[in-house]
Design goal:
There is one protein chain. α3 packs across α8 and α7 crosses α8. This protein has a domain of 97 residues: Cytochrome Bc1 Complex, Chain D, domain 2, CATH 1.10.760.10. β1 and β2 form a beta hairpin. It contains eight helices and two strands; from the N terminus they run ααββαααααα. With 199 residues, the protein is mainly alpha-helical. A two-stranded antiparallel ribbon has the order 1-2. Bound molecules: heme C (HEC).
């Protein structure tokens, strides 16, 4: 009984919910529904002589999000080749920065001397890092090491997100110091240095 009364009432109510409006609505206040606008490709009369609604950006303008810094500092490359030398001037502060970052990000695998006996390969013997003091790596261009840190190589993962560009160059400078130390002779050490044997 009750349904016969409620149902038509409901239908009338729901009919008002259609989102399709076929007649132009009566607009009492325009608010911001009607505004002047120009379509991107349509010619506009009366603004600029060439009929465009806006101006071309000045020549060689690059949008912020389209900017790609392709300097050697940012890519490790120069004319498509690995840069031979670190583009950052080598200072004691740079080496210290490199030491800190190397010990954080590289030593778990490569160990603090760079020889590749870190805690990771100790636990996962099938995952062996390169010995960074090997002649083979000594002969790497600095830009090549930059590429290894940035993009990873073979089984080494990329560290581009953990290690910012400036730290990568600091690490590279420090890796060179480790290599220099590994290949030096005892009589090159400053007088009074005690030499501890590596196990
Ligand atoms: C998770 C372990 C791990 C970490 C951390 C790591 N490496 Fe490696 N790295 C490796 C492994 C494994 C290899 C050997 C890759 C191969 O030959 O498959 C390697 C190789 C290299 C090589 C030599 C590539 C070659 O051709 O032999 C360089 C240079 C290097 N790593 C530098 C770094 C530097 C610098 C850092 C710190 C930013 C770092 N690695 C951090 C695991 C690691």
């Amino acid at each position: 009984m009750k349904l016969r009364i409620i149902l038509p009432g409901l239908l009338i109510l729901l009919a008002g919910c259609s989102s399709v409006q076929r007649d132009t609505p009566l607009q009492v206040w325009d608010d911001m529904k009607h505004q002047q606008k120009f379509k991107a490709q349509a010619p506009v009369v009366g603004i600029f002589a060439d009929g465009r609604s806006n101006r071309m950006p000045p020549e060689d303008t690059v949008a912020r999000d389209k900017f790609r810094d392709d300097s050697a500092l940012n890519t490790g490359l120069e004319n498509g080749m690995y840069v031979g030398k670190n583009p950052v001037p080598i200072t004691l502060a740079l080496l210290q920065q490199g030491q800190t970052k190397f010990n954080i990000y590289c030593s778990p695998c490569h160990d603090q001397t760079g020889m590749g006996r870190g805690i990771v390969p100790a636990r996962v013997p099938i995952w062996q890092p390169s010995n960074l003091t090997d002649d083979r790596v000594v002969e790497f261009a600095d830009g090549d090491i930059f590429d290894v840190i940035t993009n990873g190589r073979r089984t080494m993962p990329s560290y581009r997100f953990q290690v910012v560009t400036a730290d990568r160059w600091a690490i590279i400078a420090y890796v060179r110091a480790l290599q220099r130390a590994a290949h030096s002779k005892p009589d090159e050490a400053p007088p009074g240095t005690t030499i501890a044997a590596l196990k």
